[in-house]
Design brief:
Helix content: 10-25%
Pfam families: 5_nucleotid_C, Metallophos
Keywords: Hydrolase, Metal-binding, Nucleotide-binding, Signal
Radius of gyration: 26 Å
Protein name: 2',3'-cyclic-nucleotide 2'-phosphodiesterase/3'-nucleotidase
Domain 5'-Nucleotidase C-terminal: 389-579
Low-confidence stretches: 1-21, 27-49
CATH architecture of the largest domain: 4-Layer Sandwich
Number of strands: 35
GO molecular function: hydrolase activity; metal ion binding; nucleotide binding
CATH topology of the largest domain: Purple Acid Phosphatase, chain A, domain 2
Number of domains: 2
Largest sheet: 7 strands, mixed
Length: 628
């Protein structure tokens, strides 16, 4: 069982003005003499007087664990797709440069020697900055990865691998690893044949507090097993990903046997027990809570992967009854976790006596100058790249309404994907099969302007690093696929007007367990139109109506080639048939780059040449109205 709690831990600022001002700078003031911390808690200046590290007693101590996660290639508070400072509806700031300011300030207050700094993965993918140094000026050819430069300046002690670390293949990941001044940890990334970890599973850091026996802090890294599905092309035959709980049961005792007084797990796996891939693997995607409940010997878990904000949560271990501390600092450097682990020396050995956590908010701090300077040249290169003009468009295209109506923006993605697969199949047994394509509304903010089009305009349509495949499905399987996609919508009656939240099961602040937009697909034809309606008045599984190809009801036995991304083909979203469908095309070409290359080669985007209204939402057959 677990309980959420807003941290009651107090600010450790001393009564001296300079140090107190440092900590006040971490977040907005929440009242006289108080610091506002993420999650709504406030902290006062009183606790420093009871800091065990300042006590005359040498048998008590406190270590501080600072944590980030899911940085996703964000160094600065910058949106490369908008060419402007990052902005969202919650007023968040992003980037490791801001997180670094928090980390360094907390160290200066509590004492750098008492701190352990960790990251929970998903570091080298997610922005044009990350993409550029994987594909355009690759680190495998000698370039320094900006995230390596930034993290080395921060001074991390260890980082867990995330699933997105595998997106660019093992060579890129190994090149990144070599550039770091700290280890990448993953106890459940194991050799395909020997089952031995292919990265360091754990490390022990010794914390030396003046006048006290050294404290040995064991750090274990774990990643969601979903890598085996999502990056199958990069890892199959090379790396396996067994369950998080299962591997922790092997390695936590090893840490204790090696002399760890404290065990911290940096776990790239969310705190619920859901899996986007259903039962495609025997282990859940999100297992941090199960880890805390089922594995003895863990004191705290830095959680990643889910992009959630968990200031402080305690989970009871079912074997020992002890409370295990969990904290997740949102994503992209928006928050920094601070965990406090209190210890007492008993019979010559340190024992954990208590723990607490809170999150600091990056909104009110400046970027750390050392980190900002270390990446400045890389940032400038990427700005030049993403703002270079590659073509023109005869009309503006927006993805804002793509979830609930046919748009030219999604039609463009589907057209380019299908066209690429069709061309590649020339001369093969599948050359004469009709080609369909699927695409999801990844980015509601994506837009192609009329007139000049830049790299960042095109890249904004496809914000993930997915690659393109071609598979074959029957007409009956196409319908099954669309039925799964249609579960994105709620069952509602009437014709509206509806808001998107009333109509969809999408992830929202009030429905964090909903269906992500990237697990809702829109399908289109290349040489002829694929048309259909989604009847939201009907129960899931019977919503697709009027399904036709080239104006005729689709033949359940007919064969189609489907242009599909690697995430979906590998089982992401748990769509039917695709994992076992024959693969007829797989050249490992990234879809985002395919779109950029298409615009560069053709020069002009003309929506009239590829866009048509092929699908719609209905209720008992009548068109519905959606207002956003």
């Amino acid at each position: 069982m677990s309980t959420d709690a807003r941290s009651s831990k107090t600010d450790r600022a001393t009564e001296t003005g300079a140090t107190r001002r440092q900590l006040l700078a971490l977040a907005a003031v929440g009242g006289a003499g108080a610091v506002a911390v993420a999650g709504g808690a406030t902290a006062t200046a009183a606790d420093r007087r009871t800091d065990p590290n300042r006590s005359a007693r040498t048998d008590v101590a406190r270590i501080t664990v600072l944590g980030t996660t899911d940085l996703h290639g964000n160094v600065y508070n910058w949106d490369y797709f908008k060419n402007a400072p990052y902005s969202d509806s919650a007023g968040n700031n992003i980037g490791i440069a801001k997180a670094a300011t928090i980390i360094k300030t907390v160290r200066s207050v509590v004492g750098a020697g008492t701190c352990v700094t960790l990251d929970a993965g998903d570091t080298i993918q997610g922005t044009p900055l990350a993409y550029y140094f994987a594909k355009i000026d690759p680190i495998t050819q000698g370039a320094t990865h900006p995230m390596a430069a930034a993290m080395n300046k921060v001074g991390y002690d260890a980082a867990a691998l995330g699933n997105h670390e595998y997106n660019y293949g093992l060579d890129t990941l190994r090149a990144f690893e070599k550039q770091l001044n700290f280890p990448l940890l993953s106890a459940n990334s194991v050799d395909w044949h020997t089952r031995a970890p292919v990265f360091e599973p754990w490390v022990i850091k010794t914390v030396q507090i003046t006048g006290r026996k050294p404290i040995r802090v064991g750090i274990l890294g774990l990643v969601t097993p979903g890598v085996a599905i999502w990056d199958k092309a990069n890892v199959e035959g090379k790396v396996r990903f067994p369950g998080i709980v299962e591997q922790a049961r092997k390695f936590v005792p090893k840490l204790r046997q090696a002399g760890a007084d404290v065990v911290i797990v940096s776990c790239h796996s969310g705190a619920d027990t859901s899996s986007s891939y259903g039962d495609a693997l025997p282990w859940p995607e999100n297992a941090s809570t199960l880890l805390a409940e089922q594995v003895q010997g863990i004191d705290a878990i830095l959680v990643g992967h889910a992009h959630k904000e968990i200031p402080q949560r305690f989970v009871t271990n079912t074997k020992t009854g002890r409370q295990v501390l969990l904290s997740e600092p949102l994503y992209w450097g928006m928050r920094v976790t601070e965990m406090s682990i209190d210890l007492e020396l008993r019979r010559g050995a340190w024992k954990v006596t208590g723990s607490s956590a809170m999150l600091y908010n990056a909104n009110e701090v400046d970027e750390d100058p050392a980190v900002a300077k270390a990446v400045a040249r890389s940032h400038a290169k990427v700005l030049t790249y993403v703002n270079s003009v590659v073509g023109t468009s005869t009309a503006a295209m927006s993805a804002a309404t793509s979830r609930y109506e046919d748009t030219a923006a999604i039609d463009f993605i589907n057209y380019v994907q299908a066209d690429a697969v069709k061309a590649a199949l020339a001369g093969t047994p599948q050359a004469d099969l009709p080609v369909l394509s699927i695409a999801a509304p990844f980015n509601k903010a994506a837009a192609i302007p009329a007139g000049e089009v830049t790299v960042r305009d095109v890249a904004g349509l496809y914000i993930y690093d997915n690659t393109l495949l071609g598979i074959t499905l029957t007409g009956a399987q196409v319908k099954d696929y669309l039925e799964q996609s249609a579960t994105y919508f709620k069952q509602v009656s009437g014709t509206g007007p509806f808001t998107p939240d009333q109509l969809t099961n999408a992830v929202t602040p009030t429905a964090p367990g909903g269906t992500p937009d990237y697990n809702y697909d829109i399908m289109a034809g290349l040489d002829a139109d694929l048309t259909y309606a989604i009847d939201v008045a009907k129960a899931p599984g019977s919503r697709i109506t009027d399904l036709a190809y080239a104006g005729e009801p689709i033949d359940p036995a007919a064969q189609f080639v489907i242009a599909i991304n690697n995430y979906r083909q590998s089982g992401g979203g748990n769509f039917p048939h695709v994992k076992t469908a024959p693969v007829v095309y797989n050249r490992q070409i990234e879809i985002r780059q395919l779109l950029i290359d298409w615009v560069t080669a053709n020069g002009t985007i003309d929506p009239a040449s590829f866009s048509s209204l092929d699908w719609k939402l209905v209720s008992d057959g009548a068109d519905i109205t959606v207002t956003d």
